[in-house]
Amino acid sequence: MNSDDASYFLRPGGEHASRSSSRASRTNASDTVPSLNEFSQWAMASQPSILNTNSSENSDAIALTPTHQQSKPHSSRASDDVANIMTLTHTGRQGSSSNNDDDGTSVGSSGASSRLSSIFDGADALATAPVSLRSTGLREQRQKPSRQIVKELTVEVMPALLVSVAGSVLAGYILGQIQDGTAFETIPAFFIMVPVLMNLKSNIELNMATRLSTLANLGVFDNKSEGTRAMRSNMELLLLQSTVVGTCVGLISALLSLLSSDSSSSVHKDHSVVGFLKESSILLATGIGCAVIGSAVIGVLNGFTVVVSTLFGIDPDNIGTPIASSFGDMSTLLILGAITSVLTTQMSTVWPLLVIVAFLTLGVLLFRVVKTNEQMAHHISEGWLPLLFAAVTSSIAGVVVERYAEKYPGMPALVPVVNGIGGNIGTVFASRLSTSLHRRQAHASEHNLVMLILLLINIPIQVGFLAMHRFFDPSLTTNFGFVIVYTAATIAHGAAMLTLARFGCHYLWARGYDPDDYVNPFITGTGDMLGTILLALVFIIV
After folding, report:
1. Quick check: is 88 in a domain?
2. Residue 327's Cα: distance from chain center in Å?
3. What is the model's pTM?
4. Residue 299 reports pLDDT greater than 90
């Protein structure tokens, strides 16, 4: 893809992912493209102080600079118009525009925090000036009325959350079925693989969903060629990441199986190197195959969700992450069950090795494709630390469940719903925040209202599921006190996830990191750990 690819928007300030280059690259305001006149007319009509660099009341001047300086033919395709997208750059000094290229710091860099009173207010303030001019093909988004926001969230988010609850329940049922199969009896290490695989795979799919939602809200999918290119690039990146995730999950499962004291698997029965290699090959082939195939399915679903929501006027930020989360878990478990049932019967054959070689070869090819894509290459090395954090914190949540499951039999069934809904409202909010930051059109009052509505939506869904679960499972003892404490715990969990989403997005953006690549794993990982601990406290208190 060329330098004007749609994925260019997925960078704070529209600059290259390199932190050093983003601070070194500066452009004089006088070199801007002709569409600056359009912005000037708007600015002088509504906010004259933005362009008044000599004002004593506005000592921190703000210059509008183009992200690309290449000369392009006027008749080039529509995607070349995207190259004119302009980013706000803090120049850090008074005077005329001729001096504006000396001390500039990109919006979203660490320099912004020095002149703002807080992360929240600062990031919202930095995002107020519109950059979606008509020449760029992007949608200019003005602040929505409160009634429209309430209606939009209620009509769009609540059904998506209900779908995610149904998906979590169904995923739990599928997991129970495959765990009783012969594959898990033959190789108990599959029990180790399931939670780690689901967590890591789900997070890279959520990242793709938020990236596509951001692009859709920037108007990229309004142009068919741009949308197709963006979809293909993000799918290639997702499949590459899933190959890495599947390989790591397989190796970790094999290592933990070797270190485990469990003697039921083949490697512990014969204590032979051959037995260990056979089991490891099955685990590695299963991890890679399940991750790649499952991610391909959810990648297509993410693209379909964005396209359909765009056609019907639905904000993909509101439905993308819950749908990806719920269907991702179900597809992972279904594919895992199918692969394990086949490969465990081929332990003594060459088929597991062939599967590994085939998927690793695909991974190498994908790496070369993504690496040569200038606008997607930086994603290869980004976002892995949050994935590791999510894996560790989710493992802690699993330990807590195991610790209290026997004492409180009703607790394990509530864990996926409490964690799932809280995590989903957090990722929905993060997706909306990321879009507003890329637009430079964030509104603090709107974000406050969105936080409140999402928190209120969380309550009836949680209480409704508790009542339904109590009806189908009489073993769960629920009195009035339990309902009150449970509701308070879910409110605290949801509030924590929304606060983390807001702080995380603004903190990452202020330091030049794209929230679409980083914030979701922090939300889901923290949500799993915190939600499980709070639920355990509910049972302990009541």
Report:
1. yes
2. 15
3. 0.73
4. yes
